Amino acid sequence: MEYFWIGLGVLIVVWFIYRRWKMREIDITPQELDERLNKVPRPMLLDVRTQSEYNSGHLKKAKNIPAQSLRHKLSQLEKSKRQEIVVYCQTGSRSASVARLLDKLDFNVKHLKGGLVAYNRYKNS
User: Fold this and answer.
1) Sign of torsion over alpha carbons 71, 21, 106, 51
2) What is the CATH number of domain 28-123?
């Protein structure tokens, strides 16, 4: 019975390490986003904040689909499935879960690490 708990503990640790590794694979920095925005084809920007947050300021040409309604609006993204999609929110926490979901659904997705706060800080430095 003791080996069962040890094995279960090892599996849990491996699962957490895998999740962290997978997120690092899709995370991009504000600098990397800036570079991608100056290339062709330009990535699609997906702002997953609320409508009011989006209205208060967003990245140029960003599409707004709030995180809480994304599952119901996935069809709006289907035609862009192969295009690179960069997901962002205010600080990066909501967009991280959306990026994981889109990654599982085989979208070509990247996640802006630190969100709009980090991007604006980078642009203003």
Assistant:
1) positive
2) 3.40.250.10
The answer to whether the CB of 67 falls within 8 A of the CB of 89 is: yes
Which three-class secondary structure state does DSSP give residue 85?
strand
Q: In 3D, which of 82, 81, 83, 86 has the Cα closest to residue 112?
A: 86
Containing H/E element for 70? none
The structure's pTM equals 0.80
Say yes or no to pLDDT of 64 above 60. Answer: yes
* Whether the predicted pLDDT of 22 surpasses 60: no
The pLDDT value recorded for residue 109 is 96
Would you kindly state where each structural domain of the chain is located, as residue ranges?
Answer: 28-123
